[in-house]
Design a protein that fits this description.
single chain, alpha/beta, Rossmann fold, six-stranded mixed β-sheet, 26% strand, globular
Length: 253
């Protein structure tokens, strides 16, 4: 049985002023799967990712054409509440960016701005989110300590927990392990494989071995265009296009 399409783009074009950064991108993202976006630096992966929760709107003189849908609803429709959208479509960035607050306050921040005032409920959300991000055992006795005192890998899992605290349906990850050591990277990858049982994950990675380890499907971008998308095993072992094969085998990029 084919999984449900959770999110998709159709004929998506994106412009920085007059420069067209993305050309006619159409991809389906399935529920409870992870999709990796691969390709050389500057090929449009991160720009595309930010189109999926309207983060690119924060940059002046940008323009988007085509469709982006979540649960079959157009996310660029004029009546869409962008704050509500970003709650459903969370984001974890390349560099861990915890707030200069306590570990507890970092996780409770999202629920609080969304109206949750009950202390016991906040405590439950904080514990649940830190457990989901596989960091609870490391920080449960330090919840009132500043989050900036954590290691880089712990900070990144804290940021994942912070995104999970508002119960997203999709999690966008922009090279979440590129700044981390191999042990911390392994923990993030294990976490992705657990989390995709509960939500849809879209991850930008420059590391093809990582894409092979954590994704069900992989999309190859080059110069702002989607070259090929397929299930990960097929794309890596039997790519449909020579350009994909050349990139995967290291002939360019």
């Amino acid at each position: 049985m084919k999984p449900n399409i959770k999110m998709c783009t159709k004929n998506l074009d994106f412009y920085y002023n007059k420069f067209q950064a993305l050309h006619n991108i159409s991809i389906d993202f399935y529920e409870y799967q992870s999709t990796a976006l691969i390709g050389p630096s500057g090929c449009g992966k991160s720009t595309y990712l930010k189109c999926l929760n309207r983060m690119n709107e924060l940059i002046p003189k940008t323009k988007i054409k085509g469709e982006v849908k979540l649960n079959n609803h157009m996310i660029y429709a004029p009546d869409i509440d962008v704050v509500h959208l970003r709650r459903k479509v969370g984001m974890v960035f390349q560099k861990p960016n915890p707030f200069p607050k306590t570990i507890f306050d970092n996780i409770a921040y999202g629920p609080i701005i969304n109206g949750e005032k009950n202390k016991s409920k906040l405590t439950q959300v904080v514990e649940k989110s830190l457990k989901q991000a596989a960091i609870w055992d490391e920080v449960k006795d330090r919840l009132n300590h500043n989050a900036l005192g954590l290691s880089g890998g712990q900070q990144q899992r804290l940021c994942i927990a912070r995104a999970l605290a508002v119960d997203p349906e999709v999690l966008l990850m922009d090279e979440p392990a590129s700044a981390l050591d191999p042990i911390a990277t392994q923990k993030i990858e294990e976490l992705i494989n657990v989390l995709k049982q509960k939500l849809t994950i879209i991850i930008v990675t420059h590391n093809m071995q990582q894409a092979a380890r954590v994704s069900d499907r992989t999309a190859f971008f080059y110069m702002g265009k989607l070259i090929e998308v397929n299930n990960t095993k097929t794309l890596f072992t039997n790519p449909g296009l020579k350009q994909t094969e050349d990139y995967i085998t290291g002939r360019f990029g």
